[in-house]
Amino acid sequence: MKKALLSTLVLPLLLAVCTPQALANGHNPPPSADSSLQTLLEGNKRFVVGNLLHPHQTPAHRTGLAKGQHPIATILSCSDSRVPPEVVFDQGLGDLFVTRVAGNVLSDEVLGSIEYGAEHLEIPLIVVLGHERCGAVTAVVQGEHASGSIKSLFKHIQPAVQKAKQSHPPDLVEASVRTNVRMVVHQIETSKPLLAQKIHAGKVHVVGARYDLDTGEIELLR
Ligand SMILES: [Zn+2]
């Protein structure tokens, strides 16, 4: 009887735990990029209507995470205090690997963080998240004088503003926000050798998105 119980209960468990991928990672296989994106968009829907779950924020979850993290998505977003990724996607501890910098621009250090997430944490999805009326983008559009290291921040945003100007959009700030996100997505997708190779192999997917300050909605920029 004991033997029968063992084979019924323990063997399937062992088989589930000892798949090559589970052994390599020490955890369940990472989710697909599609599944991660779905989770984020569902969380944003909850945020928009104020029906938040505040998942993964209990002391028990915190304790469980202490030994390691397996985030479902990397987010590169603006430092703007109104766009915290964990809040606008209704996620919790250990869910998102976040880099925030004004204008959501890509410096070498930011790229290194994103590469780390893809290489060492096996994160399948990278989201570049811009937002409506971004102050950093607006400052560049208005040709504001930059002092100190803000200069180098503006330098990263200027190419997007120049490109957006070419189509004479009715709202240059909005067009620049969108162009900036698309350009950063392209920079990540073509970043060699690490990310370009992973993206080509289908292991990592990059999407651009824009957050609406008025409605709280996240729009994917295709
Ligand atoms: Zn901003």
From TrEMBL:
It catalyses: hydrogencarbonate + H(+) = CO2 + H2O. Keywords: Lyase, Metal-binding, Signal, Zinc. It comes from Tumebacillus permanentifrigoris. It is an enzyme of class 4 (lyase). Zn(2+) binds at C78, D80, H131, C134. Belongs to the beta-class carbonic anhydrase family. One of its GO terms (molecular function) is zinc ion binding. This is carbonic anhydrase. Gene3D superfamilies: Carbonic anhydrase.
